[in-house]
Amino acid sequence: GIAGIYKGITPTVARETVGVGCWFGAYEVVVRQLMRSQNKTSKADLGPGSIILAGGCAGVAYNISSYPIDVVKSFIQTADVRAKAGAQERPGIASTIRTVYGRGGIRAFYRGLGITLTRAFPANAAMFMTYEYLSRLSIDLRQK
């Protein structure tokens, strides 16, 4: 029913809050460090390699910070499938954390992270590169 649409909303909001904060935070920290090391006064002065590095690091930061929360969210959202195999039908956040931890300790919250990070670096590097260059183009067009 309609409640199914919102199943896992609390961990989803938590994941996005933590992840996006780390995503933009890491991007800005890396950009500022690169500006300092290259004696640049503006983000617009950074070349594509710097933007790629900062964007890739941002994607890695997002996933490392939010992955455990995403695992909990996924367990909650797939409870119906697991219920057919004998698991409890509507697990809460605390019981889900205990279940995941019971399957392998802290490492269970990071199972599959490696492949996610392999995708995260290039995907986020491309996304930030596109954003920065479209933003620069927009500024250039407005100045003309």
Automatic annotation (TrEMBL):
Top-level taxonomic group: Eukaryota
Protein name according to UniProt: Mitochondrial ornithine carrier protein
